[in-house]
Write a structure and sequence with these properties.
The chain is mainly alpha-helical and about 70 residues long. The chain is built from 3 helices and no strands. It is elongated.
Length: about 70
């Protein structure tokens, strides 16, 4: 397991603390979930960039077109 230390300015640290209290979650868990969401968004963007040309070549002009064919 890897441990990462980050430095936050006072305002961001206070905002994080408030968010953690509101959600009843430890700061470590809050930040871990944020990192996971960011990595998932990055993966999705890369996937869209990779598959986009093939989808357009197949005649799909939007995600809605694709979803209509799937459902």
């Amino acid at each position: 397991m890897t441990h990462i230390a980050i430095e936050l300015d006072d305002t961001l640290a206070e905002t994080l603390d408030e968010a953690c209290k509101a959600e009843h979650v430890a700061p470590e868990r809050f930040v871990l979930e944020a990192v996971k969401r960011r990595l998932a968004a990055q993966w999705l963007k890369r996937t869209q960039d990779s598959l986009g040309p093939a989808a357009r070549a197949a005649g799909y002009k939007s995600e809605e077109d694709l979803m209509n064919d799937i459902s």
